[in-house]
Automatic annotation (TrEMBL), chain A:
Keyword set, alphabetical order: Cell inner membrane, Cell membrane, Membrane, Transmembrane, Transmembrane helix, Transport
Name by which UniProt lists this protein: Autoinducer 2 import system permease protein LsrD
Functional description taken from the UniProt entry: Part of the ABC transporter complex LsrABCD involved in autoinducer 2 (AI-2) import. Probably responsible for the translocation of the substrate across the membrane.
TM region(s), chain numbering: 103-123, 135-153, 173-195, 228-249
A Pfam family hit: BPD_transp_2
Entry-linked InterPro entries: ABC_transp_permease (IPR001851)
Intracellular or extracellular location(s): Cell membrane
Topological relation to the membrane, as annotated: Multi-pass membrane protein
TrEMBL record, chain B:
Annotated Pfam families: Peripla_BP_4
Localisation per UniProt entry: Cell envelope
Organism whose genome encodes this protein: Sphaerochaeta halotolerans
GO CC annotations on file: cell envelope
Protein name, entry field: Galactose-binding protein
Length: 330, 358
């Protein structure tokens, strides 16, 4: 009897906290496979740094998916904003600089990149909220526009030789804690406040759950939808800035494919593709779960070709269980 | 809520257990070398990696080879991973010149060293420490060899370039890539010094890839048919894309007496197996050998010397001695780091010698 109850209870916990259970399971698995080697502080620190920029993308697209939207433009928007940031942070004596011979105050690259991200967000949001385009198509279009703009702006060249002050934004640290990890914590906190403790946040869930009902209950669905893409755009702009700063360059390959990583991460983190469901904690655990998979395979020396395969299967399995969970409820 | 707390506790417990356990280090004395490779989807890079694996096996070295899949961020993460795993000596094909200094600093911080191939490290990267090396081929030379092959061809068939005017369709690698810049400079300078008028009918990037090159060529052939007499690509992949395009567009004279059945000679760089096959079928006219075996062997021997002797300063690697005189191309243009530069020669590959490589 006791046993039965325990089993039932643990089953309940497992379904309720699939995300956490997966994460802990993977941690355990990796520690066994590497005799604990993979999970020293140095390694955890690497993992956190590696996933930091993706966290911003995940927080953005996580909010969007809560409203039952999707964003395919992430990778190229981050690529564009990284290039914009980098172009204003090049050493003035670098002959192939976008603005050769000029140096800008540190605030310029940051503002320019975040603004570029925000503009793209507004553009996406307007098309989806007021233009009534399906999010998939609208962001597919803006993905290509972002890529085109990036190539035109940089003339397809590498934007390199960035000044040290700009690089310190991402490469610096406060004591033993890398700056990047602090930025992620701040961003996650802000998004958590927004989703959990503001009226607009509850609107996002309402719209994702049932847009029609939300409208009837007096929510300005169009405005809120536009804003969610705008907020995401600001996060992508920040991601671009931090990425350029971390790498010390930006080129047309920067952040390519980040949309898939981010969407996969939040899905693994329990943000439902059906809309209306998802938590910031889940998004972050999702990001670090995917990171752990990448990191673990890299640590164990798994061939890069197989890494792609494993990642693909994990995404499919996560969505499959997600669909099943909510199909039952409906 | 209770359950969340419980789960967090379990998590914390698991983590502390793991951290505590992590203190133990493997203490065997196998030589460990890390390899950070920018993209295994490229033929040259794959050949380079295959040779590294072979050398590691022959020498009983534990080689951990990581593929960055074209992503700078991933390459930096992989470096971090290998450093925490205790790797100190590296063979690196960097994703981009701009990150080499940062990589060198991280390796220097753990008292290690690295040999860079294929994508040139910056002068500053080599200045980070004495045990950072260039084991690569100066890209200028590849362009110069292409120019010489062009000169040989038109000296033999002067009627194909009246007035020594070259009207060229030119396919570039990724813009801003050091190889793209230097190969082009070497090519143009040499031809001009040989008395040619160099006229680019069309010039654009195809990002090193055959499919993009073929698309570009298809468009150019529609626009510039009859206005050019030479096709040059900055690597073999793109050259083969161009060859396909010429064939599908019917620009074939089926006369192999000049070395190619195409109406115009097409040149590449790298001497990949595919390129040699194409030369064997009288399609591709010529290429330049970027020696994947030479570069990887040199880099491997440098890393091996560091791992076994603590330093590789002044050693002869794969029969190559450190350079003594500066050349015009970075990083071997700086006298302060010239003794850290191992220049692996390029080699022009034409009808006369291509069979040696097959």
């Amino acid at each position: 009897m006791e046993m039965k109850k325990l089993l039932k209870d643990s089953k309940k916990v497992a379904t309720q906290y699939t995300t956490w259970v997966t994460f802990v399971g993977l941690l355990l698995l990796l520690s066994i496979l590497t005799n604990g080697q993979a999970l020293r502080w140095g390694s955890i620190r690497n993992l956190l740094i590696a996933e930091s920029v993706r966290s911003f993308a995940a927080l953005g697209v996580g909010m969007i998916i809560i409203t039952k939207g999707i964003d395919l433009s992430i990778g190229y928007v981050v690529c564009l904003t990284a290039s914009v940031a980098a172009s204003f942070a090049q050493n003035p004596d670098y002959s192939s600089a976008v603005y050769a011979g000029q140096s800008f105050p540190l605030i310029i690259p940051i503002v320019a990149a975040v603004a570029a991200g925000g503009l793209f967000g507004l553009f996406n949001g307007y098309l989806i909220a007021y233009g009534k385009l399906p999010p998939f198509i609208a962001t597919l279009g803006s993905m290509s526009i972002a890529k085109g703009l990036q190539l035109i702006y940089t003339k397809a060249a590498v934007v390199g030789s960035l000044n040290q002050n700009f690089k310190n934004i991402s490469q610096g640290s406060v004591g033993p804690v890398p700056n990047l990890i602090i930025y992620v914590a701040i961003a996650a906190f802000i998004v958590w406040i927004l989703l959990k403790h503001t009226r607009q946040g509850t609107h996002f869930y309402a719209i994702g759950g049932n847009a029609q009902a939300a409208r009837v209950s007096g929510i300005n669905v169009e405005r809120d939808l536009m804003m969610v893409y705008f907020y995401a755009g600001l996060l992508y702009g920040t991601a671009g800035t931090l990425l350029a700063s971390r790498l010390g360059l930006a080129n047309s390959l920067t952040a390519n494919g980040m949309e898939l990583d981010a969407i996969a991460a939040v899905t693994v983190g329990g943000v439902s593709q059906n809309g209306g469901v998802g938590k910031v904690s889940g998004m972050m655990v999702g990001v670090f779960t995917m990171g752990l998979i990448n990191y673990g395979m890299s640590f164990l020396g798994v061939d890069s070709y197989y890494q792609q395969l494993v990642k693909g299967f994990i995404i499919i399995i996560a969505v499959y269980f997600d669909m099943k969970k909510y199909a039952r409820r409906a | 809520m209770k359950k969340t707390v419980a789960i967090l506790l379990v998590l914390a417990l698991v983590c502390t257990g793991l951290f505590a356990q992590g203190g133990k280090e493997a203490t065997d004395d196998t030589v460990k070398i890390g390899a950070l490779i920018r993209n295994l989807n490229e033929q040259f890079v794959k050949d380079y990696a295959d040779n590294l694996r072979k050398l590691a096996e022959e020498n009983g070295v534990e080689l951990n080879l990581q593929d960055a899949q074209g992503d700078v961020a991933r390459q930096l993460d992989q470096l971090n991973t290998l450093i925490t795993q205790g790797y100190k000596y590296f063979v690196i094909i960097p994703q981009d010149t701009s990150v080499t200094e940062q990589m060198a600093q991280q390796i220097q911080a753990v008292g290690g060293g690295a040999a860079f191939s294929n994508i040139q490290p910056s002068v500053d990267a080599l200045k980070v420490g004495k045990d950072f090396y260039l084991a690569s081929s100066p890209e200028l030379v590849a362009g110069q060899y292409q120019a010489q092959i062009v000169d040989d061809y038109f000296t033999q068939y002067p009627e194909k370039a009246p007035g020594k005017v070259l009207n060229i369709l030119y396919l570039q690698g990724q813009l801003g890539h050091p190889a793209q810049i230097s190969r082009e400079a070497g090519f143009i300078d040499t031809l001009e010094s040989l008395g040619y008028t160099v006229n680019f009918v069309a010039k654009d990037t195809a990002d090193w890839t055959p499919d993009k090159a073929q698309e570009k060529m298809d468009t150019w052939l529609a626009a510039h048919r009859g206005k050019f007499n030479l096709v040059v690509a900055q690597n073999d992949g793109m050259a083969l894309g161009a060859v396909e395009s010429l064939i599908t567009n019917g620009l074939v004279d089926n006369d192999p007496s000049d070395g190619t059945i195409l109406s115009f000679p097409v040149l590449g760089i790298d001497a990949t197996a595919d390129a040699l096959n194409s030369m064997d079928q009288d399609k591709l006219y010529a290429t330049v050998l970027q020696d994947s075996v030479g570069q990887s062997s040199t880099a491997f021997e440098l890393a091996y010397a560091m791992a076994t002797k603590g330093t590789a300063q002044g050693v002869t690697a794969w029969g190559i001695e450190p350079a003594k005189e500066v050349i015009s191309e970075a990083p071997a243009n700086d006298p302060a780091v010239i003794s850290q530069c191992y220049l692996v020669p390029f080699k022009p590959i034409t009808k006369e010698n291509y069979k040696d490589l097959m």
